[in-house]
TrEMBL record:
Post-translational modification: The Fe-S cluster can be nitrosylated by nitric oxide (NO).
Compositionally skewed regions (Basic and acidic residues) per UniProt: 20-30
InterPro entries in alphabetical order: 4FE4S_WBL, Whib
Protein's gene: whiB
The species this protein was found in: Streptomyces griseoloalbus
Subcellular location: Cytoplasm
Region (Disordered) residue spans: 1-30
Protein name as annotated: Transcriptional regulator WhiB
């Protein structure tokens, strides 16, 4: 089992809810079913001055937790829409989320250009 190189935090990565996840109604927040509610936030967020090898190992362990989470997609979208600048959210690191956001922005620009070109061609 991965042993983090830093002191353990006794805080869940996503806030816990008093009621069990299986009792959740459809209007309850997505994070009530997040697997990481039961894990320590230290797995998902880097301590200051964490060595690169330790960070990579911790991030891979966090991603394994995310991979078995029923709300991974909702978590990822939350982190992309906020945007969350730190930690592993929805199976993506902060750097990976920046790449996804940059690709989305480029795609939006391309679609706008194509839309404008289509309107110009139709008018001409």
């Amino acid at each position: 089992m991965l042993q983090p190189p830093h002191s353990s935090l006794q805080v869940a990565a996503v806030p816990a809810r008093r009621a069990a996840a299986r009792d959740r109604d459809q209007d309850a927040p997505w994070h009530t079913e997040a697997v990481c509610r039961r894990d320590e936030a230290g797995l998902f967020f880097a301590p200051s001055k964490e060595p690169t090898a330790a960070r990579l190992s911790r991030e891979e362990a966090a991603k394994r937790v995310c991979a078995r989470c029923p709300v991974m997609v909702e978590c990822r979208e939350h982190a992309l829409l906020q945007p969350e600048p730190y930690g592993v959210w929805g199976g993506l690191t902060a750097a990976e989320r920046r790449v996804v956001l940059a690709r989305r922005r480029r795609r939006e620009v391309e679609l706008k250009k194509a839309s404008r070109s289509g309107r110009i061609a139709a008018a001409g």
